[in-house]
Design goal:
Blueprint: H1 12-18, H2 47-56, H3 79-91, E1 96-100, H4 103-114, E2 120-124, H5 129-138, E3 145-149, H6 154-160, E4 165-171, H7 183-194, E5 204-208, H8 213-216, H9 219-222, E6 226-230, E7 244-248, H10 253-263, H11 269-303, E8 307-311, H12 321-327, E9 340-345, E10 349-350, E11 353-354, H13 356-368, E12 372-374, E13 383-386, H14 398-403, E14 411-414, H15 420-432
Parallel strand pairs: 2-3, 2-4, 4-5, 5-6, 12-13
Antiparallel strand pairs: 1-7, 6-7, 8-9, 9-14, 10-11, 13-14
The structure holds pyridoxal-5'-phosphate (PLP).
Pyridoxal-5'-phosphate (PLP) is lined by residues 102-104, 128, 130-131, 171, 175, 208, 210-211, 230, 232, 242, 244.
Length: 434
């Protein structure tokens, strides 16, 4: 657009609100909002153009930055999704982004693109339940095994890496324990092992950035090779749509495109439009407010006699506070410890199981609380609560969960946009009835 200043001169918050006025994916100069495309297939003006589209798709010799894609079929490439991908790769500070139908579709895509039969993944012992069951239940069928460990234990990491290792995988903060994994420390170890390895054998670091969102943390800047996330969470923000993304360097784009074409888990363009028009533009405002509220709620929780422990990366006594301060910063460099809290009630465990007290606390919230909802998912403008041990993380083995700081009765709170006094009041009433 003639006369417009370069958007790179503006801060991320502003950029996310406005996105791109123009896109190589689609010319929409005269729209204030990007238009929504809803077409499974695209009209081709000649058979020659149709053939050209197939030749150019995921072709290494085509410079995508200089070239309008020839759209053929939604499962290959599509403009609403393409525009979202441009903005997500900017937010995550990568070169390319591919979106998928869900976070799990994105995670399985990056792993399947990187790993071949006989190779291994080294992963932090606690991951989102479905990531665990994907790595532990499905991948061994294809000869790809995962070694589980405490990722911050450098000695254990060094001991686990072998010639077979292809991927180092972790979430940070870890869902739901809120453990912080040091990305730079993992990078240092991986660089040493990568020395002398061929590109196909290089170990890649894949970080799940779902809990932080790119507003609070940008893993590629910190040393990761891939940042994956569930767009269903903080990017959506309103709990209306599902999606997932992989952000990385340009060299992986074609492989990911080919994988997505054949496995088929594409993001619905209507959801892409929702993320593009509502999710990303409101991300900075939502997250900065949710962080402030989370801080108040975490402090309140800590003062309650009925509460045993509260884990929040914004607390100075968080075990990895120094890592949190280094990694969790907003694009202006301000410490941004996110909106997620993990806590336990006193007497939360009875005979190795979640106690009646926790049942009563949660059931009171489910029944009576106005501004806290018992539901899975996170990063929503509505405050959500759940018991990860028996719900989102049910797939993980009991002894491993306990060893890694997840207890029956542990509670995950995703703080929303409500007034913090009201959230605390609902918790206070639930504690009184527990
Ligand atoms: C950390 C993390 N990664 C990945 C996922 C999977 O995302 P989706 O539900 O969009 O497939 C989740 C879902 O809760 C999650 O919490």
């Amino acid at each position: 657009m003639k006369g417009k200043k370069n958007k790179e001169q503006y801060r991320m918050r502003t950029h996310l609100v406005h996105g791109n006025f123009q896109s190589k994916k689609w010319d929409y100069d005269h729209h204030v909002n990007p238009p929504m495309s809803a077409s499974a297939m695209y009209r081709l003006s000649s058979s020659q153009r149709g053939a050209q589209g197939f030749v150019e798709f995921a072709n290494e010799d085509v410079d995508k930055t200089q070239h309008l894609p020839i759209y053929i079929y939604d499962r290959l490439e599509e403009p609403s999704r393409g525009m979202l991908e441009e903005n997500l790769s900017y937010a995550e500070r990568g070169n390319i982004c591919l979106t998928f139908a869900t976070g799990m579709a994105a995670i399985s895509a990056v792993i399947n693109v990187l790993c071949e039969q006989g190779q291994e993944i080294v992963a932090h012992q606690v991951t989102y339940g479905c990531t665990y069951s994907f790595l532990n239940g499905w991948l061994p069928r294809f000869g790809i095994n995962t070694i589980w460990l405490e990722m911050n234990d450098e000695q254990a990491l060094r001991a686990a890496i072998s010639d077979k290792t292809r991927v180092i995988y972790f979430e940070t903060p870890v869902n739901p324990t809120m453990t912080m994994i040091d990305i730079a420390a993992a990078r240092k170890v991986v660089d040493e092992f990568n020395h002398g390895r061929s590109e196909k054998q290089q170990i890649k670091i894949v970080v799940d950035n779902t809990l932080a969102t790119p507003y609070c943390q940008r893993p590629l800047e910190l040393g990761a090779d891939f940042s994956v996330q569930s767009l269903t969470k903080g990017i959506s923000g309103f709990g209306t749509d599902m999606g997932g993304s992989v952000v990385s360097e340009s060299q992986y784009e074609n492989q990911l495109l080919l994988y997505r074409k054949d496995f088929g888990g594409v993001l619905n363009p209507r959801s892409a439009w929702t993320f593009l028009v509502y999710g990303l533009p409101s991300l900075a405002t939502r997250m900065s407010n949710q962080i402030k509220t989370a801080h108040h709620v975490a402090k309140f929780l800590r003062e309650q006699p009925g509460i045993d422990k509260v884990v929040y990366p914004g607390f100075e006594d968080h075990p990895e506070y120094e890592v949190a301060r280094r990694q969790m910063t907003n694009p202006e460099g301000k410490f941004s410890p996110g909106n997620m809290i993990y806590f336990t009630l006193k007497d939360a465990v009875d005979n190795g199981k979640q106690s009646r007290k926790v049942d009563k606390f949660i059931d009171y919230i489910a029944d009576r609380a106005y501004c806290i909802t018992l539901a899975v998912s996170l990063g929503c403008i509505k405050t959500l609560i759940e018991n990860p041990y028996s719900m989102t993380h049910a797939a993980l083995p009991e002894d491993e969960k306990r060893r890694m700081g997840m207890e029956p009765g542990g509670i995950r709170l995703s703080v929303g946009l409500e007034d913090w006094h009201d959230i605390c009041e609902d918790i206070k009433c639930a504690l009184a009835h527990a």
